[in-house]
Amino acid sequence: MRQPQQQPIIRNYPARDRRSAEIAYRSDAERAAGSAWFPVAHRWTEGWSGATLSVVFEYRGATASPLTADAPPVATAAVASRPPATAAQRHARSTMTAIDLHCAGEPLRLLRSGFPEVPVAAILERRRWVKEHADLYRRVAMFEPRGHRDMYGAILMPPYRPDADVAVLFMHNEGFSSMCGHGIIALTTGLIEERLYPAAVPETIIRFETPAGLVTARARVQAASWGGPEVETVRFTNVPAYLAGRDIPLRPAALELPDGPGDAGVVKADLGFGGAYYGIVRAADLGLRVVPGEIDRLTHAGAIITELLRAGPRPVHPTDPELGFIYGTIIVDEVPASSPDGMAREADLRNVTIFADAEVDRSPCGSGTSALLAQRLARGLLAPGKDLVNASITGQTFTARVEGDTLLGAQEAVETSVEGRAFVTGHPTFTVDDRDPLGNGFLLR
Questions:
Q1: Environment class of residue 198 by beta-carbon count within 10 Å: exposed (0-12), middle (13-18) or buried (19+)?
Q2: Worst-scoring range by mean pLDDT, 16-30, 145-159, 377-391?
């Protein structure tokens, strides 16, 4: 008599980590093999609460005790002798979920699940581990077809240092950064408004452990009309900032520089630290204005200047050698009152930051704003405690100030704070199918 057809069964194995889920998966091995049910596909889903292994089982023949959907056992190494799966059955899918936000136009993709569990360790050790073992997940989330060259992201982890509430690693088109101001503003907003962090009115404080050090965010919170918490603005106190170099002469042969009183073909850059090291150049010295219509020329110029700075001596971070690298270049328009696009004319400065692999920051750049504060204070262009309104190429602004003097190791530095706004834009779920030749990400431009 012909056996009735058995439908495939999906069994989920939730656990605190992958190892525990795999142990649960193997526990019923003999029953699965003996009943002729065999795994044909699997999917991992990972988040802050743990990992879940989802397994698809297919019935491959009649046995004395067919399995039911209520209690489908699973196979282990004992099923190595199972009938070979077809090509269509050998593939697997995994998913990643995220919260998308933007701060002054700059994206922040917070990965909530699908990223592997990162070992508990000091933050710089975690960043090294992620670079070595989880870079594929960065590519999947940041690159096309799910992202783009200018996408920016973050993952959150339990803190390692006792004075932090949460640890964060930031990611972009080139790798993993040390600090991100727009990301702190966006993360604080998302955690509070999505009710992922306990909110207090009128102020909620979140202390972030970053590779550059401890960053404290203070959110102004009110009760929204729909009953939940709503963030008005976020001001973060950054790691110490300082001016690391002045008037560094650069010869960008690939750029046409305007005629000026200085040496022909030479542009001078300062070097500022605000969680990362940035070259700082005047837009006027490049013959440019910081407006959207100039974005291609600005990107080209910023990438060239960054490359020239990286070719020179590496900056020496006062406390950690791993932070001694040039992250990008800030091109500063010092006369936004005459901006040809009519935007941000009330600002004190308008800038665009080109960082990583020619990535364009749409925001005024939070860590870059701290570097600018240190630079302008050292040059006598800004008084301590005076607000600096720094606009971005989108015309949106951060309000920042020097809060006082401090030390970074033995280096004299300043404490800075930066304020801005961010907004949630979506809750994407991404599928990674191993049949997809472009599924691991690619970049054009």
A1: exposed
A2: 16-30
Same fold, 96-237 and 242-418: yes
Extents of the domains making up the chain: 9-91, 96-237, 242-418
310's enclosing H/E stretch is helix 295-311
Q: Which CATH number does 96-237 carry?
A: 3.10.310.10
Nearest alpha-carbon partner for 150 in 349, 417, 394, 431 = 394
Note whether 173 and 132 are within 8 A (CB): no
Residues 55, 134, 169, 180: which is the catalytic one? 180
| Dist. CA 355–CA 371, nearest whole Å | 14
Strand segments (E) across 114-212: 153-157, 166-171, 176-177, 203-210
pLDDT of residue 81: 39
**CATH code that applies to domain 242-418:** 3.10.310.10
Q: Is residue 43 a contact partner of residue 78, using CB atoms and an 8 Å limit?
A: no
Looking at residue 104, what DSSP letter applies? T
With contact defined as beta carbons under 8 Å apart, do 183 and 210 qualify?
A: no
Q: Cα(277)–Cα(326) distance, rounded to whole angstroms? A: 5
Instruction: Output DSSP code: residue 102.
Output: E
- pLDDT at position 24: 77
- 101-151 per-position pLDDT tens digit: 999 999 999 999 989 889 999 999 999 999 999 999 999 999 999 999 999
DSSP for residue 7? P
Task: Enter the tokens of residue 118.
Answer: 């990162």
**Residue 21 to residues 54, 212, 280, Cα–Cα distance (Å):** 10, 34, 50
Whole-angstrom CA distances from 349 to 253, 333, 341, 404 are 27, 6, 15, 21
DSSP-based three-state secondary structure for 69: coil
Rounded mean pLDDT, 199-208: 97
pTM, two decimals, is 0.81
pLDDT for 83 = 46
Burial of 264 (0-12, 13-18, 19+ CB in 10 A): exposed
**103 flagged as catalytic:** no
